[in-house]
Write a sequence for this structure.
């Protein structure tokens, strides 16, 4: 809003007012930015301190004693390395699975004609916003019946399909010109080959959006793993991180917890920085930050 | 074969039944497409039915039982809902859910709105600021809550230290029944504001420049342009943010579990955490499912109210 610059008879010329408002805005934006970044900076700074530095009062921002070994200790701490592996397996499986099921179904909804298609699609959309909290108890009982409690498939298999992702795929595929497929069909391509060779390459932007979204959401997933993953060996990173601070006993080892938190946060931040364009588009077009 | 198709088309004119239509889809040229359609949908549909539709119906049964998982479920009708009426903690957690939602969402959207306005300007480095504001949103809530839990520590925490520099004796934050909920709200807004900001920013960028020019030519002041151009044009985006944020806030769980563990003295136990405790700490599956149903109905009612109110203030909103 160039409010000030449009006002007539102001003290400065238009150009000066613009520079001045820009300057004020920069200061305000920077102050807010510092508030947003400070907890992260605090986390990283303290991950290098020793336990004495943590409990020194008044606290200093820069560590007095640098202790990068915290990262080694955090990594070797109770099942942390295993947790990293578990989280990576779950995230990779869910991302690949969702890309496959959502793009296949999206293609069917967007292009193929078969009875009941639009009714099924409507059902999908209407359940898109269903709160997970409603599902978690019956799903838990179901997992017990399957014998899947404390197994990784319990956090993978129920999340291999996605109403939201299917919806997004369908919306994207509808916009692809039909001529491209028709040509392939006339050349004798079957439906699956058409999907694989023509549609999928054209759907890359939507696939990238879904992949980054799903990765971030799966990596961050907490409530469901908390319920279903009881044994230490199958725990994912968020669970381990949450349990670290509840260890009773002496003083909480905040320096190790902060090093662990840094480890956990880095993959998602990297995914975001690399795929920011796609992530932002996903939020703007659909506005859903999944839960679970 | 030909006669069959002819009969089919004949029937179609008289609005064929569902089964006839279904049968028709498997004849002639459409056969291949129909089969392909179902096959493509199959993996997704199986997951959808097994892990979503079935649990929904199963939940209806569970909420009518007394079930500890150790024994077989005992059908008790609506007893779980009767129990709720006299359950002091249920009302407390329900109140907490409302307190959290109706403070966190309006304040969050208010701040996000001003941030979006500030970012909607052609300046160098805007993308950098946008990224910074969005970073907490990407961070997993568990990590964010862990950091904040420490920042909030009364003795060694960062906030009280900063307050002390300004000569303020800070409260005990998450250890104080009065301050615990505001603490969670501050942390949640720090984390979640990027989402609302991004959507409002996209909304602002969609307002044509000409509207502002026209308003300026008509002599509209900065405030008038805000009131009569920006707000009406942005109202669909605001509506969207309000609806999704309210739904999301009622479902918040992670920050309560990690930051305050629902305490002190249940001051920050929302309905979600209470459901979790009943089902997975006390193994009262039936009661937990009944509570979840109540939460779902509340979310549904609030969303429906939003849609009805939308007619009054959302620009171009039509019910279909």
């Amino acid at each position: 809003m160039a409010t000030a610059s449009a006002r007539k008879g102001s003290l400065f010329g238009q150009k000066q007012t613009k520079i001045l408002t820009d300057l004020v805005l920069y200061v305000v934006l920077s102050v807010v930015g510092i508030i947003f970044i400070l907890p992260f900076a605090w986390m990283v700074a303290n991950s290098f301190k020793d336990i004495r530095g943590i409990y020194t009062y008044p606290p200093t921002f820069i560590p007095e004693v640098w202790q990068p070994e915290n990262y080694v200790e955090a990594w070797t701490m109770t099942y942390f390395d295993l947790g990293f592996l578990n989280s990576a397996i779950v995230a990779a499986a869910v991302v690949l699975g969702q890309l496959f099921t959502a793009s296949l179904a999206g293609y069917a909804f967007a292009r193929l004609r078969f009875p009941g298609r639009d009714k099924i699609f409507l059902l999908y959309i209407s359940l898109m916003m269903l709160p997970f909290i409603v599902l978690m108890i019956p799903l838990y009982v179901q997992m017990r019946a399957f014998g899947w409690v404390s197994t990784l498939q319990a956090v993978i298999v129920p999340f291999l399909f996605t109403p939201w992702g299917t919806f997004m795929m369908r919306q994207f595929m509808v916009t692809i010109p039909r001529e491209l497929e028709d040509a392939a069909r006339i050349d004798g391509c079957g439906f699956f080959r058409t999907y694989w060779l023509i549609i999928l390459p054209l759907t890359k932007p939507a696939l990238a959006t879904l992949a980054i979204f799903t990765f971030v959401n799966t990596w961050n997933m907490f409530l469901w793993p908390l319920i279903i993953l009881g044994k230490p060996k199958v725990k994912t990173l968020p669970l381990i991180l949450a349990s670290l601070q509840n260890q009773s006993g002496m003083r909480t080892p905040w320096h190790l917890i902060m090093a662990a938190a840094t480890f956990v946060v880095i993959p998602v931040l990297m995914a975001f920085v690399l795929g920011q364009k796609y992530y932002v588009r996903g939020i703007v077009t659909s506005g859903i930050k999944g839960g679970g | 074969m030909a006669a069959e198709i002819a009969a089919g088309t004949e029937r179609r004119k008289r609005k064929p039944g569902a089964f006839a239509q279904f049968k028709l889809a498997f004849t002639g040229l459409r056969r291949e497409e129909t089969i392909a359609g179902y096959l493509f949908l199959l993996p997704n549909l199986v997951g959808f039915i097994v892990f979503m539709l079935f649990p929904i119906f199963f939940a209806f049964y569970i909420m009518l039982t007394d079930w500890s998982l150790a024994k077989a479920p005992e059908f008790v009708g609506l007893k779980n809902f009767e129990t709720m009426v006299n359950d002091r903690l249920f009302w407390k957690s329900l109140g907490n859910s409302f307190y959290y939602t109706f403070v966190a969402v309006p304040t969050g959207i208010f701040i996000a709105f001003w941030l979006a306005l500030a970012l909607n300007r052609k300046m160098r480095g805007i993308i950098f600021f946008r990224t910074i504001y969005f970073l907490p949103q990407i961070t997993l809530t568990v990590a964010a809550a862990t950091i904040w839990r420490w920042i909030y520590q009364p003795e060694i925490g960062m906030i009280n230290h900063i307050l002390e520099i300004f000569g303020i004796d800070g409260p005990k934050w998450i250890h104080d029944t009065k301050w615990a909920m505001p603490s969670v709200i501050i942390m949640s807004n720090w984390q979640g504001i990027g989402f609302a900001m991004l959507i409002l920013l996209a909304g602002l960028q969609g307002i044509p420049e000409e509207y502002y020019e026209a308003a300026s030519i008509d002599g509209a002041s900065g405030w008038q342009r805000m009131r009569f151009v920006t707000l009406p044009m942005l109202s669909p985006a605001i509506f969207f943010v309000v609806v999704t944020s309210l739904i999301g806030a009622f479902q918040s769980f992670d920050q309560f579990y990690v930051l305050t563990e629902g305490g002190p003295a249940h001051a920050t136990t929302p309905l979600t955490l209470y459901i979790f405790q009943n089902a997975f700490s006390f193994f009262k599956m039936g009661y937990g499912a009944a509570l979840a149903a109540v939460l779902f109905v509340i979310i549904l009612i609030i969303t429906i109210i939003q849609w009805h109110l939308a007619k009054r203030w959302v620009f171009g909103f039509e019910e279909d």
